[in-house]
Here is the input.
Amino acid sequence: MTTTDHTSALRSVGLRVTAPRLATLAAVEAHPHSDAEAIAQAVRENLGTVSRQAVYDVLNALSDAELLRRVSVGGRSMRYEMHRHDNHHHLVCRSCGRLEDVPCAVGAAPCLIPHEDHGFSIEMADVVYRGTCSDCREREAATP
Ligand SMILES: [Zn+2]
Ligand SMILES: [Zn+2]
Ligand SMILES: [Zn+2]
Here is the structure.
């Protein structure tokens, strides 16, 4: 996407077009699955004088507007990607934190139906597959 696309994406969800918002969208697009810290760093390299808190606020606003998708990988770590509204899931390496997209195994939300729904109307299941990536397995195999 270009800056023009990002501008119209912001307008389409009723958000004002600002330099920090554009820089955040560009940073996430260039480095998908980054955490807030890495995105804040990229935005500051681009714009100079943006506080970390300002970038965190932008990430929240863009996520709430569903321009960005938050990916929870467990613990305190939250990663961000462009929201494609495609219901894909994620593979996470326990060892190095590598995160990869995988298509939904079922094809349609909510993917998993719980045995007890407590009266909820279930919209989605957020699936995270956890394991060890091939690089880490090789590294482990190579360590005596
Ligand atoms: Zn790994
Ligand atoms: Zn993803
Ligand atoms: Zn699924």
